[in-house]
Each structure stands twice: as structure tokens, then as C-alpha cells.
Please model this.
Amino acid sequence: MDEPLDFERGAPFINRIDWFTAIAALAVWFAHFMAVWCASVIWPDQAAGRIVGVALTIAAFGALYWLRRRAGKPPLHNVAGLGLAIAAVAIAFSCVPALIG
Amino acid sequence: MKSETGFDHALYDRFPTTRPRPEGELAELEQIWCAPKGWEYLKAVNNNYIGFIYVVTALCFFLAAGILSLGMRVQLAAPMLDFLPQDTYNQFFTMHGTVMMFLFAVPMVEAIGVMLLPQMLAARDLPFPRLSAYAFWAYAVGGGFFFCSLFIGLAPDGGWFMYPPLTSLQYSPGINTDMWLLGIGFIEISAIAGAVEIIVGVLRTRAPGMTLDRMPIFVWAMLAFAVMILIAFPSVILCTLLLELERAFNWPFFDPTRGGDPMLWQHLFWFFGHPEVYIIFLPAAGLMSMMVSTIAQTPLVGYRLNVLAIVATAFISFGVWAHHMFATGMPRVSTGYFSAASMAVSLPAGIQVFCWIATLAAGKLRWSTPALFIVGAVLIFTMGGLTGVMVGMVPFDWQVHDTYFVVAHFHYVLIGGMVFPVFGAFYYWAGMTSRKPLSETLGRWTFWLMFAGLHITFLPMHLTGFMGMPRRVYTYLPDRGLDLLNMISTAGSFVMAAGVLVFLIDCARNFRFTTQNDAGNIYNAGTLEWLPTGLYSTRSIPLVRGRNPLWEQPDLAKEVEDGRYFLPGSITGLRETLITSPINAEPQYVQLMPGPSPWPLASAVFTAGIFLALTVQAYAFSAVSCVFMLWATLRWLWETDRPIRLKEGDIGGGIVLPITITGRHSHSWWALNATLVVIAMIALMALFGYLYLYGIHPEVWIAPPALLQTAGIAALLLLAFGAAWLSRILLARSALGEFPGQGPWMSAAAGAVLVTLALYWDVTGWLGAGLQPTATGQGATVFALLAHQGMCVVTGIIMAAYLGWRSGRGLLTGPANVTLDVVARWIGYCAVQGLVASLVMRLFPGG
Model:
């Protein structure tokens, strides 16, 4: 069989920190999404809803930063790194409506 | 590798064993696992039979729904045709969507899972074979009756997502809508039963050494699929029950004149409905990943990325439900959030597509029928995905909402994302269950006819949608530029049907079901399902050392067949399988498996009776069915928790493991947890409904009962929790096999009594405060939550009585017992659920 590609090598797959980080990053996205949606429903089309949305986004990025540090700044091709990247892009996407209304 | 359970990995070096196996061991295994004959087949629970008949049944529903679509296309072939009357057309499109989504797509992937997973994991069977049988029979009986409603003009006609107020009693007075609400609610029970089975099967019955890192991608996808079912399906069960309560008892959940809101239905339905698309897609993508690797004859590129993409898709799919509601006037910023999430979900889907393309590019592709279906599926799914990104943009969605553009979009997604991979899988895995493989020539005809038919049918629909043709109309006026495009779509649908017909001819000519003399591994795949198997699965359960064991260990098949690995015979003379740890798959204990039984079938039939009787409001018949259902279920359970004399046994290589354990390391613990997630999700979604209606209509809210009463209810529920917990402690004090007296049972029963008292106090308290379920949205949601709690409490009482019966017969022995574990934890859960629901309803927001 062919040798596995680079990103298939490395640390054992069941690296609890990697998987915890990836899942936690996606959970942060989900929590952020639900929270900003609730804010937009509680303050429909009002500045308060958007300000809370931006604040929650900053908090979510803070949580991702903390997860990244905790995981030892994993590279993008690592499970933890990719999980953090997907979550970060999704959170950034979610912030756009709060910024531009 | 670090041990997860304390199991010494050096013991793996003993395999493959070298000592000759005792004579007669294989014959005994065959005898233990032999299938019933003749009519007794109805009692079969083995995955080889249940999985296969499950797949065939789902395929029959696919054909039936496909025939309905042909009828619709004939009606729309030219303007102002009278082929189908308007009412019948409404029933056709409703049944087409409903059957495809609920009776074909989800059951088909679940069926493929039941059929393939035990072999892929090298387990003897899934851990609860009777639950698989129940899931199948509930689905087949319920689905069959549901579909037959079409022949008597009682089929639902409100569209597959059944929006109120169209489906309220005022606008849909017949029982057509009830047929959908109760029928679908019932069929979802089957899906959930299958999901519980799959989660426990995947996490606890993998072959030793098959760490999560070595698990086939399809197994990962099935795990995500099953978890998503547990999270998403309770929402649709809840909303169907709420609408049925509104229709039958006038509880105004969706009536805005009394504090309800029809948008609540849309939120609840789509919280299930959009993840449903990924529930269907992910397992099909798992099948694709398996087939891509084999047809390219190289390991899947980006295995871990693919797994992460599956997990990420599962997460993000729960944040996109309201993109179906862009045209309902939601706050602008809210629509923006859902639009953003809808685009974000394309990231992990894109990762999977790139992994497949990279694998095909990295290997040596052989253009077999599965290969054609895979490449076709990638192309079609990508096209559907691109139009999905388009309708994910709010302004664009407003333009094409409820037009044929949307019809074209989701058919591209669902056919590319599910139907083509499944047809590819039929050709790929046919050799596992048939004496002869399916024909390559006919397979190519099938593919090209389906591929061409799909584009001829659905590509023009993008244009008819742009031109403003709304979906769900039974006819249209001539000379609006729609005539030719509709005629082309109709012609295309028949081309596609011809492809399916060729597939059926192929099956009739070549497919011959077998459990032993199958055609085998004709595509040279590397995963365990291609090991030689009988009804007992593999002769011995192999030690897995890689992701493609058959490629990496060329002698594995022979060694497994010679009994050189785990559990080469039966230790107890009964059906058994090996339970392994959830992460590293280290051997933990031997599980006894139940054999053939008529009770799952009986239970499913009577469960169907309950729901069908409710449809026509025959409450007495429904109650009688309920009694018989309980009787059948308890008979089924009675046989499963039996004390056995042998406490441990040699699983091969001199490794001795316990036989059947209880507590948090047991598979039954996991199954109950999965079930409790479903119950909790129903309660959580009902609480969402309560808060949502308060947000919309706070003016109808009344003050809750006095705080002192709330404190009293909370105290009772805490006591109930303590009593349930105490029952486990009392049993744990007795020695192995010793009967501890009636203390443990009495303690559990006391817990059941206390939660009942708390519920009674809660209900009477609200009634005393002047709240009526028929008066306002608050009343309806409060009493719906209490009714849900009531169902759980009644179940707890029945369980406590059953436990008492077993205790009276001396079957409750220490220091731990599966039945007591389940009953105590159920009652404990009821107490926690009652506490949370009561506190939320009484303290927030009414307080």
C-alpha cells in the first residue's frame, strides 16, 4: 500500500487534547450561534441586538484563542487546528450580519 | 498505545493463536446461530436477515414514491391536463415527499447500517438484535398502513412539512392530516430505536484493536447519523404531537388568536428538517468514502480530515434550520445569522468532496458501475450544493422561494447526495449478500439512464422556477413559456424511471440472497465486511491493526476462518459477542445475545395499533393495543436479563473476561443514556416552545402558583431522586449472586411514587392558578410539558412494577443488576426532568 500522506502521520489519532479542542471549537460556534440568534430575536432589528452579537463574537474568539493555546497552537493540517479554523470561519461569518445589519 | 481500560496490549501478541481449535467448535457455533425456518422467519432477529429485508422494504417505498412522482409529472406534462384531480395531486406530492424522506431515505441508510455494521466491525451482531427487529417491524407495519391511506383517499395533503394553519382543524378537517401526524410520529420511533442500536454497536462492539482512528469512514458517518437522529428527531415527534393535541383537544399551540403561533411549528419542524438532509447525506458520504478508496485501490486521502468534516457538518447543520423561513418576516439580522451558517456548512462538505477527488487522483481508477455512480454523485451533489449556496442568500431566496428552482435544488442535493451513492452501494456490496454479483453491463445502463434522466428532469426546473412557476400547483396556464420545459422534465422523469427499471431487471436476473455462499470481494476492498462470514458473522473476531486490514494483513481471512482470533466458539453455549472499550476497542467483557423471538414483531404490531387507532380517535382500541404492546414488550425483556452460572470465560489466547456486566461500563448503560437524550430533547424543545410563545404573546401569560408550592414539588422530586439512587446502593451491598430481599425494589418504587405525587401537585397547582390547556398558548405548553412528564412517570411506574415482579421471583441478585440499573436511573431522570421543567415554568418568565 502507498505510504500515508503527511497529515496522516504524526501524533496518535486518539489524542484527547486534539479531539477535545476540535469538538470544543465547534461547540463554541454552536453556543455563539444560538446566543447571537437569541439576541437578534429579543432585540429585533435594534442596535442592542447587534452590539450584543459583536460582543458575543469577541467572547467566542477569546474562547477559541484559549482553546488554541491550551492545545499548544496546533497547525492547520492537524485535527485540532482544522477544527479551530472551521469554527473561526463560521463564527466570523456569523458576525457579519451583526456588523452590517 | 496507552491502555484505556487497564487491558495489557502485550496480550495482543498472542494472536493469531497457533494451537489447533477443538473439533466441533464451528459446528456448535453454526447451530447456535442457525436461523429459524419457514414462518419462523418472522421471529428472526439476526442482522443478515433484518438488515436485508429492511433494505428491500425501503427500496419498495422508493419505488412507490417514484411512481407517485411519475403521476405528478404526467399531470404537469402539458398545461390544463386532467390526469390527476387537484385533491389527488395534493395527496400525491405530499406522499411523494413524505415517503421519500421518512420511509425511504432515513430507513434506507439505517437498514444499510444494520446490514453492514456488524460485519464491518467484526461483531457477531449489533448489541440489541431484538431492538433492530422491532425497529424494522415498526417501520414496515407503520409505513405500510401509512402508504395504504392513499388508496382510500385519506392520505395527507398538506405538503410534507404540514404547515399550520393549513393543517389546522379549520382548514384540514378530515383525518388525512392526523394520518400524517400520528403515522410519522410512530415511524420516527423506529428511527430512534435504530439510532440507539447503532450508537451502542459502533462504540461498544468493534473488533479489538479497531481504535476510533482505524474505524471505517462509513462507521464514523453512521455514528454521526445516529447522534444527529437523537438530537433532531425529538423535535419532529414533539411538533407532530403538539399539532395533534391542537386538532384533537383544541390546545392552541399554533393559534395566534389565543397566544399560540404558527411559526412555532416551523421552528420545531425545521430544527429537525434541515439536519435531516445531513442525516441522509452523511451516511451516503460514508459509503462514498469507502467505495472511493476501493475503486482507486488506495487508502482514503485525508482520513482524519474527513472524520472532522463529518463531525463539523453534524454540528453546523443544527444552525441552519431557519433558512427555510427567510420569507416569513423574521428580523433582518436573524436571517443574516442563518444565511451565514448556511454558507459555513459548505466548508466541511467541501472538505469531503476534495478528499474524494484527491483519492481518485492518487489511485488507479477502474471504471466499474460503483465508480460511475460515485463520480456522478460528486458532480450532481456539487451542482445541488452550489444552488444551495444561492438560496442561502436571503435576497435570492426571496425571489425563488416556493418555486420550481427550489425543487430542482433539493432534488440535485438529495439524489446526488443520497440516491446515487446508495445505488452505487447496491452494486458494490451486492456481492456480500448475493451468490452472483449484479451485472456490470446492466449497471452501466442503469447509471447512464438515471444520470441523463436526472438532468433532463431537473435542470429545466431551474428555469421554470426562475420564470415564476410555483411548486405544488397541479396545473398551469398555457403560453407562459412553461409548456416545453415541463414536457422535457416529464420526459426526463421517465428516462430516470427506465434506469431504475433496468436495475430491477438486473436484480431479478442476478441477485440471489445468501448468507453463506456469497460472490465475495469482487472489487478487492480492504475492510472487514469482506471476511468470510456466516450468520455468526466471522468465525473468530479479528485483531485489527490498520484501517484496511485485508490489504495490510493478507493472511487475515484465513486466520479468522481458522478461529485464530477472539471468541472462536461459544463460551456459554449461547449467542455471544465481545464488548470492547469505546475509544481503543480493548476487550472488556462477553455479552450474551438474545435469539429469535416473536415479541419484537408483536410489540411493533401493537404499537402500530395504538397510533392507527388514535388516528380515527378510537381511544378504547388504542388503550387495548397499549396493554398488549406492554405485555409483548415485557415478555421480550423478561428473557434478556437472566442470571447465568458462568461468570467468566476464555475468549482466546488464554485471555479471561467476565460474562455480562452491569454499571457504567456496560453497553446497556450506554443505550439508556442514548434513550434519555431523546426524552430530554423532547422536554428541551417543549421548553423552547414555552419560552418562544411567551416572547410572542406575553399578554396572555398568567402568574404561576405560589412559591411555597414550587418549593414543595422540588423537595418531593429531590427525595424521589434520592430514593432511586438508594435502590442501587442497597443492591450493591449484597454479595455476588445473593438475593438482597425486597429493599432495592421498594426503594425504586418509592421513587416512582414520589415523582407521581410531585406531578399531581404540579398539575393541580396550575389548574388552581386558573390555567387551562385550551385557553392560551401558555396553558397548552405548560400542560404539554406536564403530559410529557406524565408519560415518563407512567413508564417509571410500569418499570417499578416489573422490577417488583422480578424481585418477587428472586431474579434481582447483587451486587448489580441490569434491570434495576435501568429502572433506578429512569426514575432518577424523571425526577431531574420534572424539577427542571417545574422550576422553569414556575419561576421564569411567569414568576
The helical segments of chain A are 16-42, 47-70, 79-100. Residues 1-13 of chain A have pLDDT under 50 and may be disordered.
